[in-house]
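Hi Y.,

Following your request, here is the sequence exactly as I used it, all 429 residues.
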Amino acid sequence: MHHRIDPPGDSAGGVGGDPDARWLALLMHAAFFLLLSASLTRFLMRHPGEARTPWIIALSVTLAVLYLLGPVLGSRPTPRRLAWLGILVAVWMVLVVLAPSFAWCAVPLFYTGLRILPPRAALALVALLTAFVVAAQLRLATGFDPNLVLAPPAVAAVATAVFVHMQRQAARQRELAARQRELIDDLLRTRRELAATERREGTLAERQRLSMEIHDTLAQGLSSQQMLLQAADRTWEADPDAARRHVRTATGIAERNLAEARRFVHDLAPADLAEGGGLEAALHALAARENAQGQGAPTVRCHVEGTRAAVLPDRVQSALLRIAQGALANVREHSGATAAGLTLTHLDDRVVLDVGDNGRGFTVGPDGPRPANGVRGHGLPAMRARLRQLGGTLTIESAPGEGTVLSAEVPLTTGPTAHAAPTAPEEPA
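Below is the corresponding structure, written out as tokens. Let me know if you'd prefer a different format.
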């Protein structure tokens, strides 16, 4: 496959893209005019007043003008450019025939041919110019000299090899630069895609976290209010005092939900923890609110075992409080229990929250609890997701008629980073 031999950095009709190529072109142009001037001067000094002298001068000027037109025509092998090169070489050949001393102008013409023509044509032109140089040197010599036969081809070979090597080096540099640009473009595109993926994952994780927060607070509070208001409606005529107690309890829950909603707007921290006192105080307050719901609600006791060596991380406190809220909501709505207990146990390397009740219980299969109504809820999956974020585990022990014990364990020495995204929940509530 043939390719035009361009000078290094010459890809658009000139050598302006490569400083080395520009210097090489300027050097060749200067060498051409210097050799042409030297040849003409030599001829005029040795052959003054001959009949061919006007022709030699006219052809020298014509050759100089033609050479000056070269950069204007560009470097691509267009028909006009090829015609110019043919005329330039033909004028030079006539000059060499008339005055052999003009033969050394061939070296800059080597460069011009190699820069314009495809490889084979360029090599053929170099061979032709070299043959004319050899013939001219033999004409000038008084006898046969092997150097005159061997030196011009050697010079032509070296000049051609140097130029081709420079061309290949420039081509490799252009390919390397193009490959680097492609790699940089790929890197930038990959970074943009990674940033977009991280934003999507962050958005999904935040949505899941918000859904768990809303489920564990506002949704459960609204469910309790609904149950209390329905109970008040049923007993309004028969027992107005009990109905009013239900309404007051529902009002207290609404106030609590309002505080939670405002806390969501502020920083999404549980309101009980924001009030100070830590997780233990928040669990006692939660048990007190559950007991305040009155008739039909299970009695909740809270117990703390062990002494914490240090303050629990905010993420751990928030997660365990939300789990306690969700577990008690399940007890209240689904278990039919009359009593429940919250037990917070501080160990050396972990903290454990147990939520037990004396309700009807259920069957715990290998894939988690099996609800009797077949409805898959959000509570237990949300609890598991919270604990997975902290490197913890959720264990459920239950059997029909024997109540339920839910145990949430969180390690305090190791765990995933705060940016770990929860996995999709699968277990039913």
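Residues 1-16, 414-429 have pLDDT under 50 and may be disordered.

Thanks again,
Q.
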